[in-house]
């Protein structure tokens, strides 16, 4: 459905706009091999395959029928994901980076949306990848994002938390006890 493709592209543009101010501030360093592979897979699953699907008919064999209901749900989930993506960028501020790293003036953020969950940006990515599957009615283009991001999430988060524990010690340990990874902790 054309509407799903249009919304997907608009959402990509919004993601770039939301991230842009933080990107210029982020210090760059050479990511390790695992990070490079995971980021490459994410680019393929979240960007390259969807673009091939949208702009060519090479993936037509993997198409399936969509409906207005599914695309409508996709728009709602994408809007929620983008809202959370924006909120986590404003709260994390200069501490954001595309790969795992600690900046010179790194601060531990535990306020704003980070008060509820430790990984709101990854929660936002899960929502946007689910939306991708709802908006693009094609097995490869729809699920490429979920599969590649799922892999990245499960391999990266333990490493990220280990890195934060080494850097911030007890305060991060305490913070981990107070929060859920992507789902708020009750009580
Ligand atoms: N996992 C977080 C942040 C993703 S950006 C989220 O999903 O919202 C990745 C970088 O954020 C990591 O390199 C780490 O340095 C930094 N980071 C993660 N949690 C943080 C926190 N609570 N406070 C400050 N920096 C954090």
Summarize the structure in words.
- It is globular, with a radius of gyration of 17 Å.
- The model has no long low-confidence stretch (mean pLDDT 95).
- Helix 1 packs parallel to helix 3 (68-92) and helix 4 (120-135) runs antiparallel to helix 5 (139-168).
- It is mainly α and 187 residues long.
- The N and C termini lie far apart (43 Å).
- The protein has a single domain (2-17, 32-178), classed as Four Helix Bundle (Hemerythrin (Met), subunit A), CATH 1.20.120.
- It is 67% helix and 0% strand.
- The protein has helices spanning 2-23, 33-55, 68-92, 120-135, 139-168, 170-178.
- S-adenosyl-L-homocysteine binds at residues 88, 92, 95-97, 100-102, 108-109, 114, 119-122, 160, 164.
Q: What's the helical proportion of residues?
A: 55-70%
Number of strands: 0
- Poorly predicted runs are none
User: SSE order, as H and E?
Assistant: HHHHHH
CA-CA gap between termini: 43 Å
Number of separate structural domains: 1
- SS-based class: mainly alpha
Task: State the CATH architecture.
Answer: Up-down Bundle
Q: Which ions and ligands are bound to the chains?
A: S-adenosyl-L-homocysteine
Strand content: under 5%
Overall pLDDT, averaged? 95
Largest sheet: none
Question: Multimeric state of these chains?
Answer: single chain
Shape: globular
User: How much is the radius of gyration in Å?
Assistant: 17 Å
Q: What is the CATH third-level topology name?
A: Four Helix Bundle (Hemerythrin (Met), subunit A)
- CATH class placement: Mainly Alpha
Total helical segments: 6
